[in-house]
Amino acid sequence: MPKARTKYCPSCNTQGLRPTSNPNILGCKQCQGLWFEDGSLNHAIAQEHDCIDQYDHELHLGPALRVSERLCIRCRVSMTNYQLLVHYTTEIDCCPACDGVWLDKHEIDQVMHSPKLKQALTDLNQKVSWKSWLFQFLTAMPAEYNVTPQRTPWVTRTLVVLCSLIFGVGVLSPEASEWIFTNLALNSDTHNPAHFVLQLLAYQFVHGGLMHLVGNMYFLWIIGDNLEDALGHGAFLVIYLFAGIMAALAELLLFNTSQGPLLLVGASGAIAALFGLYLVWFRHASLTFMIVIYQKKLAPHWYFLIWSLINIAGMVSGQGGVAWVAHLGGFGLGLLLGYLLKDYVLRKNPLIAMLNQPEAVVRR
Ligand SMILES: [Zn+2]
Ligand SMILES: [Zn+2]
């Protein structure tokens, strides 16, 4: 019986490749890379994504880059380096003769997720359109470019509905409005501890005017859905309410009560904390910024840097009527929580983790 030819790992070059549970896939014990015989990679990707039909025939690769230093384990010819996707710069080795593919260990997840990565990067790299231009020109609100959430953002929607309902009741009935502001707004003169704790939660759902409400709810709507998706419903709600409480306490701490008591309403503090989380976890997302009539997609860190500078300027100039300290305090808390929870969130969300890698190319 002829001795089977030893198959060398294209990466380590010394260790023989071993068969895996799939006869068309060989694995290296030493470097944990995988070899896919012709076509079996597409099949594996299709199985991972329940889309066998779409991925039958070919891997949707980016451009061929150069001749690889590695040899095909079957044909012994040099393989070719391909970029995984047009907008994802991971390089994989493919054999031009037999269509076999070699994946290093760290590339396996990226390749298996490549249909989702491709869709996400198509969404993220959309150019600003006349619709987004007109929207921002008329409303002064940014358009957001981010991946579509997997779960329905029930908490975000409920928060928006609750805030809007409370505002609507106040508009319809002046008595109700007075009751809401007397009992639910945060008042530094409240002496009953239980009532004060209630106000710390309730003030976040009360808004002083239509523009105050619409501005807050719009930002909650566009960034809350992605954050809720990344964190899960319960954790998102807990962080949102906790941030609102801490933002109020920050405002209270620095408030000069000699000019009368502090009366605080609005979701801005909690939403500013969401800005911090968003900046840390969604480096691939974009928010549009408009200078007079020129609209530009900005990375979250640029967008929120500008937002912070406006708030710092407001705080320093002592302009009244806006809780600058609550905004900045909430934002700082969001940044801190964002860094502390980053590993956990990226572990739970492999797609977000891959979009955080330098290999993801986002055009702005
Ligand atoms: Zn190896
Ligand atoms: Zn080959």
UniProtKB/TrEMBL annotation:
Q: Where is the Peptidase S54 rhomboid domain?
A: 198-341
- What Pfam families is this protein classified in? Rhomboid (PF01694), Zn_ribbon_TFIIB (PF13453)
Indicate how the chain sits in the lipid bilayer. Answer: Multi-pass membrane protein
Q: Which domain of life is it from?
A: Bacteria
Which EC number(s) does UniProt give?
A: 3.4.21.105
UniProt KW keywords: Hydrolase, Membrane, Protease, Transmembrane, Transmembrane helix
Molecular function terms, GO-annotated: peptidase activity
Question: Membrane-spanning residues where?
Answer: 159-181, 201-223, 235-255, 261-281, 302-318, 324-341
Specify the Transcription factor zinc-finger domain's residue ranges. Answer: 72-112
Which terms under GO biological process does the entry name? Answer: proteolysis
Write down the top EC class of this protein: hydrolase
Q: Where in the cell is it found?
A: Membrane
Q: What is its main location?
A: membrane
Q: Which family does it belong to?
A: Belongs to the peptidase S54 family.
Name recorded for this polypeptide: Rhomboid family intramembrane serine protease
**Whose protein is this, by species?**
Marinobacter xiaoshiensis
